[in-house]
Amino acid sequence: MRYLPLSDTDRSEMLARIGVKHVDELFADVPKSLLLKEPVDLPRRKGELEVERILSRMSAKNIPASSVPFFVGAGAYKHHVPATVDHLIQRSEFLTSYTPYQPEIAQGTLQYLFEFQTQVAALTGMEVANASMYDGSTGTGEAVLMAHRVTKRRKAVLSGGLHPHYADVVRTLSEMSSDEVVTMAPDVDAAEDILSQIDDSTSCVVVQSPDVFGNVRDLKPIADKAHQHGALLIAVFTEAVSLGLLKSPGSMGADIVVGEGQSIGNALNFGGPYVGLFATQSKFIRQMPGRLCGETVDADGNRGFVLTLSTREQHIRRDKATSNICTNSGLCSLAFTIHMTLLGEKGLTRLARINHANAVKLADQLASVKGVEVLNKTFFNEFTVKLAKPAAEVVERLVEKGVLAGVPVSRLLPGAGLDNLLLVASTEVNTDDDRAALCAALKEVL
Amino acid sequence: MLNRQGRPTAPQAHGVSDPAAGMGDQAARLQGDDTRARGSSAGTHPTFTGNKALAQIEPLLFEIGRYDTTGVDLDEPEDFKPRLGGLERKEPIGLPGLSEPETMRHYVRLSQQNYGIDTGLFPLGSCTMKHNARLNERMARLPGFSDVHPLQPVSTVQGALELMNELGRYLITLTNMTAVALSPKAGAHGELCGMMAIKAAIEAKGEGKTRNVVLVPDSAHGTNPATAALIGFKVKPVPAREDGWVHVEDVKERLGPDVAAIMLTNPNTCGLFEPQVAEIAKAIHDAGAYFYCDGANFNAIVGKAKPGDLGVDAMHINLHKTFSTPHGGGGPGSGPVVLSERLAAFAPVPFVRAGKDGSFELVEQNNEAGGTAAPFGRMTAFHGQMGMYVRALSYMLSHGSDGMKQASEDAVLNANYIRAGLADLMSLPFGNKPCMHEVLFDDAWLKDTGVTTLDVAKAMIDEGYHPMTMYFPLVVHGAMLIEPTESESKASLDLFIATLRDLAMAAKNGDRERFTGAPYHAPRRRLDETRAARNPVLKWTPPAPVAEAAE
After folding, report:
1. B-proximal residues of A, 70-89, CB under 8 Å
2. Residue B211: pLDDT above 50?
């Protein structure tokens, strides 16, 4: 077996040194009747070539985003990732290192985490950011728990514009913890009256912008109302590129900002691994979940970085910890920070403008297709259209025409009576030809 | 003198007026005579740049980046009317950029300050730092896996669903369990998933109000009690015995109608297989409770024993440990949970279902689950860590059932070989008996040497090794938990053993300096963690104007 360096001679010598005859003597504490004599009922070892053949065959059954006109979003976005990013994250010293518990030989990881935290704080307009969560949805769950710790209240109000998967994650966690959740009805046109739901028992209000239907929301009035009642505003985003063009959640009064960082540096990967971004104000840092990297000095007085404030964490506090999170999204946060460094402010804002421009172009073109109505007054790079037929059906028909048109709202909210709604995303990867193909295919199908 | 990046080349000119200010005792000691006697390696032959040949100082991005620089060529879009509802950003963000060559150099230099598995032996106990085959990286990047969207039509991702189904089949076969929930994002998330399934099962039996205690041995990972507490369980500890094992009597004593589950790590964190695990499982089941097994140490028994045969009801599997998906400096992980027949119905959405015609469907909503299934909800957006599933399956296909069994045997053999090589010089808290894939020492052998477990760890860094897990498990004083994994050759183990023997002799012979000032040869000397926590600096801020700084 190519991954195992020991030879049979080595094994015999080592067993002799240990003082046993057979390796199974080392498994003496396993009940004898349960120790397996033969390998389990699975195929035997395979060479690289054979493994490549098997997995390539599976891969070939899927339609990659890059191979067709592609408009699927709803929380994960197809962006171009520079070649440099994927090369650098595969550097052995990044790829095969552990959580930086030994800072003297992990300054590479620690310094990029410090830079990552600084970038995320700047992007969200907040004072501090952590070293990442698993993804946006689990980060949102953690944000709600953090708000409960800060306010010592147990009721969260979820906007009807919050991604339904995110809402499900929060509800699952809250039900298990016996916390209260008020979920607003699906809010296609950002018209909900969330302010009336906020009272003195509210711990936090969770609002996404751009929301799952694409609407850009003004968070300021919600933050103000929440603060009047001693509640926190948790601002959620699923498209990090939007922050290059939109007012930061921090500038609109958010207390916790949490979102999905996949768009910057990370491939679609069929849903994971992604990277959760999590930021807040300095006064709340001791209630934050997850790892934090901080600056310090070494014994020679040289600047260095360490994981810090770990008395919040499970390995120290056990059942009193702020979260149970341990491993987070290290390498995905590296991809994020490298891509962000390549972009810089100039590149990010331009990338955001291109995304918005492409989406505006697409919306205008779709509006002229019979049977298609664009519902959004505002949007960034994704919006909702109402079709003359059920969206799921239309999307399947468009697959036959070689176009991946978007996400039917019924997939996220089945039974909500929104079957004719389709979420359509357009990023920098879409060309004029892509847009023309989508419009042409829709004309045929509708 | 300042170098071209405006950073001082001589440590004493760093601008930190008194490095010892605010430091704890230990840090103050580090500044003491021992350190000076050995001397800072930077003190000899200073260079203009502060670099030392291949050892390059790399400033922060914010000290070298520029706000008008970008390393990505993009064309400004033609004029258009924005639809942002007047919510455009008006202020600058504060994100400097670098050109592509500068970016490459920045991160390559940072990488060179890191230790990885590819650098050398990485004996971090309970973390299973085994070889990360690059075939797995190549497979995960196949466009049919890396470039597909979680919400594109199911008809266009049949191969991805097939892979998830196949991975699930492998995990179920290796564990002899009934079902698997793939979506948890890491080990602790898997624990949460398993405990949520248990809570759902208890509530389904109408015992939700009364069964609210979870037994957790003192030797458990911190994530176990943190997870149980997260969803409202009360944690009741089970003390460790002198032999390192959990005893069935101790469990029985704590069992009652209020107990929901036990969270037991097996093999445990002392590196031992729990010999009474089957009896403990029976006692738990007889009391109407569930057996959660922490699968962090599964690498010892893959292909040797099946957790389902031991009475386990739920167990998470760290794909980033046992099945070699890269740790990546702290993730991403992946923590699928296998479930027994008693819990299978409560598995969360989404899950893959194989159709009779060879096609696969994805169940994404609770009410689509059908039959007796009663999913407890959803752990995460989308379907989990697909990129890790591909890598793990690539590992399993490569090893095969025979290779996985061999890997476990080699992992256990390697740990015992280290035990045999060090037992006379270092102290084994539970006697010199066979261990599983990791061997636990305590610090009794350091008594009266003035050297601590931490000092030994830092001295290992100077010798070119990543330290073992230290001060964990908590049940042993000054714990040193060594897990070599199956990836080490005999020659590598021999050198490692010889090195630790040399360190042990040095400590016993009074060469304190080699330990208390260590590391001397790493990119940084020992870092002041107290200072970092006392005055947290969690992001870069622009330096104060020069006039102020000069005061």
Report:
1. 70, 72, 74-76, 78, 82, 84, 86, 88-89
2. yes
Q: Are residues B443 and B347 located together in one domain of the fold?
A: no
The nearest CA of chain B is from the CA of A32 a distance in Å of 10
Which residues does chain A have within 8 Å of residue B185's beta carbon, measured at their own beta carbons? 134-135, 138, 272-273
Sequence-distant (≥ 6) Cβ neighbours of residue A241 within 8 angstroms:
A77, A79, A263, A264, A348, A351, A352, A355, A380, A381, A427
* A339, A82 contact by CB (below 8 A): yes
Please give the structure tokens belonging to residue A88.
Answer: 């650098």
Number of folded domains in chain B? 3
Give the residue numbers spanning the domain of B442.
401-534
Query: What are A312's two structure tokens?
Result: 């919040």
pTM across the whole model: 0.95
Please, what is the average pLDDT of chain A?
97
Q: Do B406 and B390 belong to one domain?
A: no
Residue A251 contacts B, CB cutoff 8 Å: yes
Task: State how far residue A158 is from chain B, nearest Cα, in angstroms.
Answer: 16
Report the phi/psi class of residue A36: left, alpha or beta, with left for phi > 0 and alpha for psi in -120 to 50. Answer: beta
Q: Considering the domain boundaries, does residue B425 fall inside one?
A: yes
Q: Is residue B122 included in any domain, yes or no? A: no
Mean pLDDT of the B414-419 span? 98
- For B136-147, write each residue's pLDDT tens digit: 999 999 999 999
* Residue B23 confidence (pLDDT) above 80: no
Interface test with B, best of A126, A270, A361 (most B CBs within 10 A): A270
Helices (H) and strands (E) in chain A, counts: 13, 13
- The CATH code that applies to domain A83-339 is 3.40.640.10
> Where in the sequence of chain A do the CATH 3.90.1150.10 domains occur?
68-80+345-445
Q: Is residue B217 part of a domain?
A: yes
Estimate the crossing angle of helix B490-508 against helix A8-18, to 10 degrees. 30
CB A72 within 8 A of CB A425: yes
The verdict on a CB contact (< 8 Å) between A99 and B187 is no
- A96 to B89: CB separation less than 8 angstroms, yes or no: no
Helix (H, G, I), strand (E, B) or coil at B420: helix
pLDDT, one tens digit per residue, over A415-440 is 999 999 999 999 999 999 999 999 99
Q: Work out the angle at residue B331's Cα, subtended by the Cα atoms of residues B330 and B335, and round it to the nearest 5 degrees.
A: 125
Give the CATH number of domain A68-80+345-445.
3.90.1150.10
Statement to judge: residues B230 and B346 lie in one domain: yes
CATH number for B367: 3.40.640.10
Q: Which of A27, A246, A348 sits opposite B304 (nearest CB)?
A: A27
Structure confidence at residue B153 (pLDDT): 98
How does residue B10 score in pLDDT terms, banded at 50, 70 and 90?
A: very low
> B70-92 pLDDT, tens per residue?
999 999 999 999 999 999 999 99
- Residues B360, B449: one domain? no
CA–CA distances in Å: residue A179 to residues A175, A200, A302: 6, 16, 47
Query: Smallest Cα–Cα separation from B188: which of A184, A326, A309, A219?
Result: A326
Which residue does chain B place closest to A79, by CA atoms?
B147
Q: Of B368, B394, B420, which residue is a domain's last?
A: B394
- The pLDDT tens digits for A40-98 are 999 999 999 999 999 999 999 999 999 999 999 999 999 999 999 999 999 999 999 99
Q: Is residue B501 part of a domain?
A: yes
Inter-chain contact A123–B489, Cβ cutoff 8 Å?
A: no
Q: Which of B60, B185, B310 sits opposite A272 (nearest CB)?
A: B185
Tokens of A333: 């946060």
As a whole-number percent, the residues of chain B with pLDDT over 70 amount to 91
Residue recorded with tokens 């085994």: B130
Q: Are residues B461 and B511 in the same domain?
A: yes
B60 with B205, same domain: the answer is no
**Rounded average pLDDT over A316-333:** 89
Cβ distance B156 to A399 less than 8 Å, yes or no, reads yes
